[in-house]
Design goal:
heterodimer, A: about 110 residues, mainly beta, 6-stranded mixed beta sheet, 11 strands, B: about 110 residues, 7-stranded mixed beta sheet, 4-stranded antiparallel beta sheet, about 0% helix
């Protein structure tokens, strides 16, 4: 059974600081890994999709890496802004998505 | 805007009742999955439909059932509601099973009293 863990559970940083969010998973037989953003009480917004054959993916200030052999992914958010405050979820796809519990980020102005 | 819409956005039901939640997927997306998200937790996989057939199910009892229709819409039905069924229910659509990006709707918040 796939287990996904996200550390830390919560993070508070001043505006402008870089964010590092970690995700680990137990079974490396995955198709891909997705990072999502979730605002309170809302649905999930896809941020990045990393195919299992890729090592990283970038979109604007976001960069995600994937090390399938060690079961780890890291999401980097450069130069954080108050609008980045949200919960960030990683999910591994082995035909269904298995999610971590998320990291709740607060960026202080 | 993901192109995935869910209805209703909020719902209050009484324990023991039945509920139907609806999802409209992106056109051309043959796969729809449903997830339950309790407060403070990550979404949990309920089941997945591909071309109107269920092809995978998570650890949920049979009172959770679903349907997928040819027009890219789908339903989640829950019978004999329990207090613990209170959660945000999310549907996700994708082009195929596995290895493709999943797009989520805004969710339906179900409260069972």
């Amino acid at each position: 059974k796939q287990e996904v863990t996200q550390i830390p559970a919560a993070l508070s940083v001043p505006e402008g600081e870089n964010l590092v969010l970690n995700c680990s998973f137990t079974d490396s037989a995955i198709y891909n890994l997705q990072w999502f953003r979730q605002d309170p009480g809302k649905g999930l917004t896809s941020l990045l999709l990393i195919q299992s054959s890729q090592r990283e993916q970038t979109s604007g200030r976001l960069n995600a890496s994937l090390d399938k052999s060690s079961g780890r992914s890291t999401l980097y958010i450069a130069a954080s802004q108050p609008g980045d405050s949200a919960t960030y979820l990683c999910a591994v796809d082995d035909y269904k998505l298995s999610f971590g519990a998320g990291t709740t980020v607060t960026v202080r102005a | 805007e993901t192109g995935v819409t869910q209805s209703p956005t909020h719902l209050i039901k009484t324990r023991g009742q039945q509920v139907t939640l609806r999802c409209s997927s992106q056109s051309g997306h043959n796969t729809v999955s449903w997830y339950q998200q309790a407060l403070g937790q990550g979404p949990q996989f309920i089941f997945q439909y591909y071309r109107e057939e269920e092809n995978g199910r998570g650890n949920f009892p049979p009172r959770f059932s679903g349907l997928q229709f040819p027009n890219y819409s789908s339903e989640l039905n829950v019978n004999a509601l329990e207090l613990d069924d209170s959660a945000l229910y999310l549907c996700a659509s994708s082009l195929a099973m596995g290895d493709t990006e999943a797009f989520f709707g805004q969710g339906t918040r179900l409260t069972v009293v």
